[in-house]
Amino acid sequence: MKKRVRKAILLILTATGLAGFSGSLSAQEALSVSRSYRSLAMGHTGIASANDSAALFYNPAILANVKGWWFDYSAWTLETSDSFTATEYTPMMISPVFPYIRSEGIDNGDKGTFLSKDNPYIRGNAGMNLTVNLTDTGVSVAGSYLMEYIGTTLNSEATIYQRYDTVKKVGISIPLGMGSFILGLAATQIERKVAVDATTDAITTWDSNNTATGYDIGLLYRMANKARITWGLVVQNYGGMKFDTDIEEPEHIGFGLSMNHEVGIFKIVPAIDIRQINSKAERKNTLHAGIEIGMFPNSTGGSYLTYRAGLNQGYATQGVELNFFNHYMIVGYTQYGEEVGEGTDKLENRRSILYFSLGL
């Protein structure tokens, strides 16, 4: 058994090293919906390893691995490119009342500052997540209600692109047989408005709300060994998620592998994801790898103190998390690199994420 565990760890760490050579496969950024600070710290893996309140957005089958129940009623994430300081992005993004995010977009007076930054990027979301594990074999249900804002640039940083989504998502995991195989199903509804503004003084004009519904199908295979090796497969936005206009969230197929090994007070979770397997783009966002090392694991699947690291499209990622009282309060910080080069050019954009959550 120990030999198999060592081999599995070696396999995943080797793939982590190979991810450093994946630059030729990296894609220009796809602005996906609701990403987890935990997953991004681990190289943006999660198809077979997600275990937090954002697990539903990575693979509905992985809900079977969320222990107990989790009501994340104050999920607040603020993410910015490293070219911004706190005094610059706080007035743009933070509001004194729920949902914290400025639904009216960047103030006109802040647009000049925004455009002066190298590859400016801001993302913030706030909302509620609920996951309930109903049986030991893995019957779980989950739901999320989030509001998410993204601000970035297009056309060599000359045009501001802003997007505001209201996301409603529900899912269920269903064990097949005795629970080694898990089927996951999820449905997503997004109300989206978009603004594209090439000037720094004009009032942003938002498009009318566009609505789309999409479906995810996931599979999980949990091996019965000490290492808890898990294989995952997911089809997100099956058939494409088409809005009222020509906007579309494309279908993505992904594969994941992870393990969960406890050694004394430590929990070690290495993971690999291969994403966008069916992408028709010239450059694909394919290989992601990472590892999580937790100290003093708790009964909810987390740890009191956690360090994470990985490679996202060949760029280094890392993060830390404090988890108080079995996820009643979580504070997390992540740094990662994202590929934003145009055409075949490679260009890294370094970003930081601050996450705060109150849960039950």
Q: Can you give a write-up of this model?
A:
The chain has 360 residues and is mainly beta. It has one domain: monomeric porin ompg (Porin). It has helices spanning 2-19, 37-41, 86-93, 108-116, and strands at residues 69-81, 122-133, 140-154, 159-176, 181-197, 210-222, 230-236, 241-242, 248-249, 252-258, 261-263, 266-274, 287-297, 303-312, 315-324, 329-339, 348-358. The protein has a 14-stranded antiparallel beta barrel. A hairpin with a 6-residue loop joins strand 2 (122-133) and strand 3 (140-154). The model is unreliable at 12-27 and 96-100 (pLDDT under 50).
- The domain tally reads 1
SSE class: mainly beta
* Global geometry: globular
- Residue runs with pLDDT of under 50 for 5 or more positions: 12-27, 96-100
Helix run count: 4
Q: What is the mean predicted local confidence, pLDDT?
A: 83
Give the N-to-C terminal Cα separation.
37 Å
* Counted beta strands: 17
CATH architecture verdict: Beta Barrel
Q: What is the topology, as strand order, of the major beta sheet?
A: 1-2-3-4-5-6-7-10-12-13-14-15-16-17
Order of helices and strands: HHEHHEEEEEEEEEEEEEEEE
Q: What is the CATH superfamily classification?
A: monomeric porin ompg
CATH C-level category: Mainly Beta
CATH topology: Porin
How big a fraction of the residues is strand? over 45%
Q: Main sheet, how many strands, which sense, barrel?
A: 14 strands, antiparallel, barrel
